[in-house]
Amino acid sequence: MVVYLEHAFDPLWVKVANALRDQILQGHIKHGELLSENKLASEFDVSRTPVREALRLLMEEGLVEMLAGRKVRVIIPRLEDITEIYQIRWILESAALHELGQNPVLAKKVSGELRVCLEQARQALDNKNVMQLATANEKFHGVLISALRNQRISAQFKTIHNLITLYRRQTLESDSWAVTGDEEHIQLVQFIEQGAIDQALDLLKRHLCEAKKVLREYLEQ
């Protein structure tokens, strides 16, 4: 089967990387699945060179890993990865909240953008669309991080959130957890709008700790 590549102006290896990333994050390619350069080249109707470059990029993003014998596989989630990811999230997102607390104009702008994300998340919940919900979650936290006004941090955060999406796909299918997370997002925006940054920080810490706990429990099953 030939996989058709979009985004005509991107280099070929970027198109392959984007398509593979989407397949991994959407669960079409499973955790631990081996990826063959020859097979992928055939599926994408390209030579092995752009496939090799695409896999190198996904390796840098932490979505795939190299095994002995130059075999490549989709990563298998590890508990230590979860701890590191959520440590990074707390550092970045708490810094963003502090920035919003010092800049009311920026806080008003960001809270408006966050409310758009909340509406998208609500639609995803109503439609029971897991990937749409994951996208809305990524946008929500990405908008929050944008308060730091640092493009490099925002780019790195997107890579981190790709890992979260990969790890959390199954936990997002839990209706109770998805609804709780959405309610906490709503409350967080309200605290930002009220200038109640200390309360927002407390809520963010609980939100991230619970998300980490749910994910660790899933991986330990």
Termini, distance in Å? Answer: 35 Å
Shape category: elongated
Based on the structure given, which CATH architecture of the largest domain is correct?
Answer: Up-down Bundle
User: Which CATH class of the largest domain?
Assistant: Mainly Alpha
In total, the number of strands is 3
In which order are the strands of the major sheet placed?
1-3-2
Assess the beta-strand content as a share of residues: under 5%
Number of helices: 9
Tell me the CATH topology of the largest domain: Four Helix Bundle (Hemerythrin (Met), subunit A)
What structural category characterises the helix and strand content?
mainly alpha
Tell me about this structure.
This is DNA-binding GntR family transcriptional regulator. InterPro entries: GntR_C, TF_FadR/GntR_C, Tscrpt_reg_HTH_GntR, WH-like_DNA-bd_sf, WH_DNA-bd_sf. Pfam families: FCD, GntR. Keywords: DNA-binding, Transcription, Transcription regulation. The structure is a single chain. The chain has helices at residues 12-25, 37-44, 48-60, 79-102, 104-127, 130-145, 151-168, 175-194, 197-220; strands at residues 34-35, 64-66, 72-74. With 221 residues, the protein is mainly α. The chain folds into two domains: 12-74, Arc Repressor Mutant, subunit A (Orthogonal Bundle), CATH 1.10.10; 79-220, Up-down Bundle (Four Helix Bundle (Hemerythrin (Met), subunit A)), CATH 1.20.120.530. Helix 2 crosses helix 3 (48-60) and helix 4 (79-102) packs antiparallel against helix 9 (197-220). The chain starts with 11 loop residues before the first helix and ends with a helix. 27% of the residues are buried. The mean pLDDT is 89.
